[in-house]
Design the sequence.
């Protein structure tokens, strides 16, 4: 088998760039694609997309590729595409990218290339879902291109197992109407009684999702306290769109 057909690096950026603007027109949606075995991935594609070069090449990598890494990279791309399809996408944003694809605009292929690079970097399919939600916000003009790049860097650094704890803080701040005032949260009974996992919070703080308050700052007698940053609030909104991130990764001692 020709190596061009079995090497995931030869799933050209332009092929994925062709699929994204037409994502809502193709019936790709499959539940729990991230749970499929690598060799079963080709079966999730319908005959309706056989004519699209990206899917033909991807199926050949799955069928004939010898490297688990090659197949896993394709799986992450599938997860990304299925998650992207599973939500509202602005037609103007899609058409803008469709035209950019047709006319070979560099900005669009740079956008897709950077997305693929980060997809290949991660060993977690959950991060592919997070990236898809970020890309949806980019298409819908909720974030800027520069913001998208910064958020990809943050996703690259986050521990999936830390996300439920971040969401716990989010829910407590929401309940106390203190999402935009971390100091006020820590002055509530819920904030004072909240059990912060300092290791997880320190990691989340290191990538900008939490702010830290030291005991002496406000007269506390316990260890350091934390609250959401603006980045943290945004990412919690992203995480809440993805069902399993809040339920499957509870920390167990």
Sequence:
């Amino acid at each position: 088998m020709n190596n061009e057909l079995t090497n995931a690096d030869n799933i050209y950026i332009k092929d994925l760039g062709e699929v994204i603007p037409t994502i809502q027109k193709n019936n790709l949606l499959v539940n729990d694609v991230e749970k499929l075995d690598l060799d079963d991935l080709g079966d999730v594609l319908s005959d309706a997309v056989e004519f699209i070069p990206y899917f033909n090449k991807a199926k050949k990598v799955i069928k004939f590729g010898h490297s688990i890494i090659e197949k896993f990279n394709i799986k992450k791309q599938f997860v990304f595409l299925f998650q992207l399809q599973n939500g509202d996408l602005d037609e103007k944003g899609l058409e803008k990218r469709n035209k950019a694809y047709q006319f070979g605009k560099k900005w669009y292929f740079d956008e897709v290339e950077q997305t693929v690079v980060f997809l290949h970097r991660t060993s977690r399919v959950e991060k592919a879902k997070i990236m898809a939600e970020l890309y949806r916000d980019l298409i819908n003009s909720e974030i800027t291109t520069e913001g998208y790049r910064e958020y990809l860097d943050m996703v690259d650094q986050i521990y999936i197992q830390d996300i439920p704890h971040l969401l716990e803080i989010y829910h407590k701040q929401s309940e106390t109407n203190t999402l935009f005032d971390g100091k006020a949260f820590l002055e509530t009974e819920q904030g004072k009684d909240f059990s912060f996992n300092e290791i997880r919070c320190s990691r989340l703080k290191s990538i900008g999702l939490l702010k830290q308050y030291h005991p002496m700052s406000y007269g506390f007698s316990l260890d350091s306290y934390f609250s959401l940053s603006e980045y943290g609030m945004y990412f919690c909104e992203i995480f809440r769109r993805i069902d399993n991130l809040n339920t499957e990764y509870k920390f167990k001692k």
Remarks:
- The two ends are 48 Å apart (CA to CA).
- The CA atoms of residues 73 and 120 lie 6 Å apart.
- The chain has a mean pLDDT of 82.
- The first strand starts at residue 210 and ends at 213.
